[in-house]
Amino acid sequence: MKMLYSGKAKEIYDIGEDGHILVKFKDDITAGNGKKHSVLEGKGKLSNSANRIFFNLISDVPNHYVRDYDETSFVAKKMKMLPLEVVMRNYTAGSFCRRYGVKRGIKLKEPLFELFLKDDSLGDPLICEDTVISLNITDKHTISRIHEHTLEINRILSEFLSKHAILLVDFKLEFGFGEDGELLVGDEITPDTCRFWDAETKESLDKDVYRRSIADPREVYRVLLDRIEG
Fold first, then answer.
1. Which residue, 98, 107, 110, 194, shows the most beta carbons closer than 10 Å to its own?
2. Which residues, given as ranges, of the chain have pLDDT below 70?
């Protein structure tokens, strides 16, 4: 297989299938736009397992996931990605608390939809919908559809996780267009890109334990998987 791209936590390969690529999770984990970096043996397998579960749950929302490939990889549709990170928040955490000076763990009145420009050199800045349109990144109709899809994913995942005593605090998605022009959810849905808290203790079951140097993220990823696979 020919490698097409190697990022912070994933590699993309050409597998010789029309319209398809292979996405492989690395054992790497980063925080702070790559300023903090570790290689944790077995982490890629855990990320792939979580990603498979969550994409199977949202199968009715148009997305790039095609099928499982091996322990660390999956086959996906080729996409032209939008340079945006889409974040939906249900509780206050992370950069939201720093930006607005609020305490961690406050439940928001309504799910909050945010857009960020995907550009590491700029620190992935928050960007408003009007600016997205003015910069010709995409149009108002596409933003509206992205919002609708994100709300639906939030509903599906929140309902599923609540059955396992887990709160979906917030999550990041990326979108793009398939070769047929269909808007699709791409990238990944894992503890690297979502915040999951134990509903009772509010302890993190996600990458925050690495960001804050609390624990080995593999330990909490395994706890998460044991609960949602059971």
1. 194
2. 230
